[in-house]
Amino acid sequence: MYNDFKIKSSPIFPELKIIKPDVFKDNRGFLFTDYLDSFFKDKFTPSLNFVHSKNAHNNAKVLRGIHGDFDSYKLVQCIYGEIYQVVVDCRKDSPTFLQHDSFTLNHLKPEMILMPPGFGNAFLVTSDYAVYNYKLAYDGTYNDHDKQFTYKWNDKKISINWPINDPILSNRDK
């Protein structure tokens, strides 16, 4: 019960998956499974083994990204608040290099985005506060910020139409 997921592909990137969990709602609120080992190991090739999970707590107008690496799968979701999620193809040999797709994610309509290696991850907080969860699948050790690629949030070659022009940025993202 509540352990089922619907999967669809991004219209821009077939390898990018939008995963919607089965949600149970009643007068108390709602309940859903955001990760089930057997589902993620059986439905995807290669079989995904998530070994790392982290949360980012964010204030309004915070923009994080565009970051990524060529080794990790990322399963991301907004577990509280609302974000404008952007995914950028950063694989130089790809026919969709530097193209992007965007999504609105919020905790009231649970969805997760599964990004394969080589895709850049970025998001902007569009609510007063948001909590964002990353689950990472990789072999070996984690590729921390010093081993990741970064693109400027407003890179003209990518041309993302962000909902605001004056986000709060880290030094890395400036």
Structural features:
mainly beta; 4% helix; 174 residues; Jelly Rolls
Helix content: under 10%
Major sheet: order of its strands?
Answer: 1-2-10-7-12-5
Uncertain segments are: none
Question: From the alpha-carbon coordinates, what is the Rg to the nearest angstrom?
Answer: 16 Å
Q: What is the CATH first-level class name?
A: Mainly Beta
CATH superfamily: Jelly Rolls
Look at the helices and sheets and give the structural class. Answer: mainly beta
Description:
The longest helix has 7 residues, at 37-43. The strands form 3 sheets. A 6-stranded antiparallel beta sheet has the order 1-2-10-7-12-5, with no helix packed on it. It has a 5-stranded antiparallel beta sheet with strand order 9-8-11-6-13, with no helix packed on it. A two-stranded antiparallel ribbon has the order 3-4. A hairpin with a 7-residue loop joins strand 1 (5-9) and strand 2 (17-21). The protein has a single domain (5-150), classed as Sandwich (Jelly Rolls), CATH 2.60.120.10. The chain is globular. It has 174 residues and is mostly beta strands. The chain has 1 helix and 13 strands.
Short note summarizing the structure:
By secondary structure, this protein is mostly beta strands.
Question: What topology emerges from the helices and strands here?
Answer:
Blueprint (H helix, E strand, L loop, with lengths): L4 E5 L7 E5 L1 E4 L2 E4 L4 H7 L6 E10 L3 E6 L4 E8 L1 E8 L10 E7 L5 E4 L3 E7 L3 E9 L11 E2 L24
Antiparallel strand pairs: 1-2, 2-10, 3-4, 5-12, 6-11, 6-13, 7-10, 7-12, 8-9, 8-11
